[in-house]
Amino acid sequence: MSSTADCKSISPECPIEATIYGYYPNLGVNIFMVVIFAICAVSQIVLGIKYRLRAYPIVVCLGCLGECVGYVGRVLMHSNPWDSGPFIIQILLIIVSPSLLAAGLYLTLKHLVLHYGAQYSRLSPKLYTWLFVACDAIGFLTQCIGGGIQASADNTDKKMLDMGNNIMVAGVSFQAATMVVCGLLSLDFAYSLYRHRGERKETVQASSSRSVRAFQFYLVCFVVAFLAILTRCIYRIPEMAGGWKNHLMRDEVGFMILDGAMIAIASILMTVAFPGVYFPAINSKTKKGSDGGNEDCEATSDELSVLKPAGYSQV
Questions:
Q1: Is residue 202's pLDDT more than 70?
Q2: N or C: which end of the chain has fewer CB within 10 A?
Q3: Judging by beta carbons within 10 Å of its beta carbon (0-12, 13-18, 19+), is residue 38 exposed, middle or buried?
Q4: Rounded Cα gap, residues 71 and 259, in angstroms
């Protein structure tokens, strides 16, 4: 690293092979990613205003914006892979932004549990939001701390660079572990619903076929987006743990498929299947209990066809 510490541009003394990635980022593919994430970010703002949702479109929009700016950094790196500014921008934002998308999914879990029936869940509906969003925030902050150490370290200070990288690996690993636990609890909830399917048969039959299909579409998009983000997290662990210039880090095709494409798919699905459109129950107010307190209520399938966006939503 010391022999190339003063490199500022590609030259015989500073070849492309000596850079961390060892390649010129593909211009066309990275511009395509910028456009995709920009469209998703703007769409989240528009849909959030139209359907009066707050937290969900905000965190998803921020995640998409982070990815967009991160890929702008990769576009700039195409002309000069030795430029440290774009490199730092892209490595920080592309690593931490998926945490915000995951937070968007966690925010809707409570409402999915309420929709199907909280009595079938091992966790209180509110815990799905507080527990997993809190864990996601821990992973996000850990990655930010690691990225900050890397950004402030001198290119020749391998100890500090490795420390920052290890902290980021810990953050990504914690994020992946959080998603695995969430996935296992969701599978347990789904199995409980399957075992008690007879109890819900009448409710399902009462719903319109149109509302059922709409909600099924939303649910499929939710699951695929969740798996896409989890796949990306799992890929990132060995990719970063291998250290600078390892073979995974220098494989752009692998990166674009297992990171870029996975997060792009998740962003598109979380935008196309916007909960305000396909899951109107997410916008319903909680009912008042007899004691005047708020009571979590189950939103049945037939409610999907009649509930309209209200002026309240925390998601």
A1: no
A2: N
A3: middle
A4: 12
The length of the chain, given as a count of residues: 315
**Which residues pair with residue 295 across a beta bridge?**
287
Mean pLDDT confidence for 290-296: 41
Interacting residues of 173 by C-beta distance below 8 A, sequence separation 6+ = 237
Q: Is the pLDDT of residue 14 over 60?
A: yes
List the beta bridge partners of residue 36.
none
Q: Are 54 and 102 in contact (CB under 8 A)?
A: no
Contact 187, 121 (CB under 8 A): no
Pairing of strands 294-295, 287-288: antiparallel
Is pLDDT of 113 > 60? yes
Q: Let me know: does 299 contact 307? Beta carbons within 8 Å.
A: yes
| pLDDT tens digits for range 52-104 | 898 999 999 999 999 999 999 999 999 999 998 999 999 999 999 999 999 99
Query: How many whole angstroms separate alpha carbon 212 and alpha carbon 138?
Result: 36
Cα 127 to Cα 85: distance, rounded to the nearest angstrom: 40
Give phi and psi for 20, each to the nearest 5.
Answer: -60, -40
Predicted TM-score (pTM) of the model is: 0.85
CATH architecture assigned to 17-284: Up-down Bundle (1.20)
Looking at residue 111, its pLDDT comes to 87
- Element containing residue 195 per DSSP (H, E): helix 158-195
Instruction: Name residue 76's amino acid.
Output: L
Structure tokens at 244: 């600078």
The Cα 94–Cα 37 span in angstroms is: 11
Cβ 234 vs Cβ 254: under 8 Å = no
For 202, the enclosing helix (H) or strand (E) is: helix 201-206
Q: How far apart are CA 113 and CA 123, in angstroms?
A: 9
Mean pLDDT over each residue of the chain, to the nearest integer: 84
Region 149-155: mean pLDDT is 74
| 200-209 CB burial, b ≥16 within 10 A, e <16 | eeeeeeebee
CB of 294 closer than 8 Å to CB of 129: no
